[in-house]
Amino acid sequence: MTHPLRIGIWALVHGNRAALNDPEEPYDASWRRNRGLVLEAESLGYDCVLVAQHTMNPHRTDLGQLEAWTASAALAAETSRIEIIAAIKPMLYHPVVLAKMALQIEEISGGRFAINLVNAWNRKEIEDAGLVFREHDERYAYGAEWLEVVERLMRGEEVQHQGRYFQVKDYVLRPAARGRARPRIYVGGESPPARDLVAARADVWFINGQPLEDVQALIADVRARPRQGEPVRFGLSTFVIARETEEEAQAEYRRLLDLAAQDAEIKAYVKANTDPAVAMRKTQAKFQSVGTNGGTAAGTVGSYDQVAARLAAFHAAGIDTLLTQFQPFEREMRRFAENVMPRLAHLRAA
Ligand SMILES: Cc1cc2nc3c(=O)[nH]c(=O)nc-3n(C[C@H](O)[C@H](O)[C@H](O)COP(=O)(O)O)c2cc1C
């Protein structure tokens, strides 16, 4: 069954998505900006917002960084329709505390809250806090047990759990979710253990931006893994550059590529802090692109018609949530809503 296509945005938790120094988009990761961005996205018809989680700015520690969970709670109170998805790195919060926070934001939002489990790449962020940065596959073993506890608590179950990492006794959280079983669970990560976790416990898998054939292969891989319950659903991150003509879009792509080249020092710093085992890094290295999490590698640079057709092809392949990035964000988000969304609706109707 194909679900309707939902379109979301990345909140600007650490400012610009493609290049840090852009005269057209001064650095700003403040609450004030993000609040305005999300309220506008909601009024333009966007369906969800992902609030990524980083405690320290991963690019430059002297730059501001929006805190995901407190900001998500505030966004929940200020908005009325958009789904709010807060990222969570399991090693940062005990599952009981996190499940309680998730249920609180579920109540504030009136049933529009979701978590996105991400198993971390930034060794420095974790180790400098004095926390344990486990090796890649062990992070997934920890994350799977963590999510099992969180899932049952978010469902309102009384939890008894004696595991390898967590011992929880007679725990029950109230108020439970109303009108549905629990907040939605997304997972962002691409490695084989990430795919197992998705098949076992996620509602939606967020895939890094990449060409259609690669995405089709990833979807087939996850669909073939053991699963109980509803079929898993799929989301894709993509950086969009859309213009009236393909030439104009390519010119803007080159402008952003040139600006991104000025971030070489930042990229080297990020690379030095990144766990070399993470799949995201390998995917990102395969393609020339701008933006994070695959950036434009899904082929979303082109005319309005080309971009709409490409996104419709991903939808036909099983992607039902698109998570968009732009730069400068607000201007391009409006352009997309005005020019690409109607074309997409038209293609879907056809
Ligand atoms: C849609 C999406 C969102 C992500 N958000 C975050 C985030 O908020 N914080 C973070 O540290 N990593 C984030 N990540 C990166 C994951 O932490 C990263 O993919 C991790 O290394 C998982 O390992 P794997 O890709 O090897 O499975 C995100 C990844 C995706 C696909």
Automatic annotation (TrEMBL):
According to the lineage, what is the superkingdom?
Bacteria
Q: Any signal peptide, and if so, which residues?
A: none
Q: Which UniProt keywords apply?
A: Flavoprotein, FMN, Monooxygenase, Oxidoreductase
One Gene Ontology BP term is: alkanesulfonate catabolic process
The record's listing under Gene3D superfamilies reads:
Luciferase-like domain
A GO molecular function annotation here is: alkanesulfonate monooxygenase activity
| Xref: Pfam families | Bac_luciferase
Q: What is this protein called?
A: LLM class flavin-dependent oxidoreductase
